[in-house]
Design goal:
alpha+beta, Aminopeptidase, 4 helices, 9 strands, globular, binds coenzyme A
Length: 169
């Protein structure tokens, strides 16, 4: 299993991975809209020369109180082809993705999803860091991970995803 940056020739396969994993086109369309925007990151999991998983990060901003130099990313989406799920590929994509984000000097990552799953990677409820989601979601489903300890110490407010997300439904 190899995790690498998405290449131009992966675009169609990545689209397919998202459609098959989510059973709809929304996430694939979102990735297609976000691709190429500054501070977006797209990685794929490759097994036997086949792309079987994908993860994407895009920039978010905090509307509220926060240092203007703080760089935060949103993790979304992450997808693994059904036949390859529950083999650790999703976890590998998330762990390696987060490491790369930290290496690129991003200070925190937010995610909307299952607390049981994302707490494995160190994510905790965003509200405990005084951050809330712009979408109407259960409090525990919106999570944040500091990549740089204390980065969110003086922050509070609403986390806003790129406008491309509002076209997601
Ligand atoms: C979520 C997803 C990427 C995980 O990939 P994966 O390769 O199966 O993940 P791993 O093998 O590393 O980990 C599997 C573990 O995560 C858990 N898990 C996966 N998705 C979960 C979810 N939505 N809620 C809770 N737990 C989840 C599984 O129960 C499993 O736990 P176990 O090992 O204790 O049985 C994959 O299931 C997927 O593509 N799902 C459809 C798309 C999706 O919902 N993406 C996440 C939202 S952005």
């Amino acid at each position: 299993m190899n995790i690498r940056t998405e290449k131009p020739e992966d675009v169609a396969t990545v689209r397919n991975v998202n459609i098959v994993a989510f059973g709809r086109e929304n996430e694939a369309n979102l990735v297609d809209r976000l691709r190429g925007i500054a501070s977006t990151f797209s990685w794929v999991a490759v097994q036997s020369d086949q792309v079987v998983g994908h993860i994407f990060f895009s920039p978010v901003v905090i509307a509220g109180k926060c240092s203007s130099t703080l760089s935060i990313l949103g993790l979304a989406p992450v997808a693994v082809l059904p036949n390859y799920q529950r083999q650790g590929i999703g976890s590998l994509l998330i762990r390696e993705g987060l490491q790369e984000c930290a290496r690129s000097h991003f200070q925190a990552v937010v995610v909307l999803g299952s607390p049981d799953f994302y707490s494995r990677f160190g994510f905790g409820t965003a509200s405990s860091k005084m951050l809330r989601c712009e979408y109407d979601v259960p409090d525990e489903a919106f999570m944040v991970l500091e990549l740089e300890r204390g980065a969110l110490q003086d922050c509070s407010g609403m986390v806003k995803y790129r406008s491309e997300f509002s076209l997601c439904e």
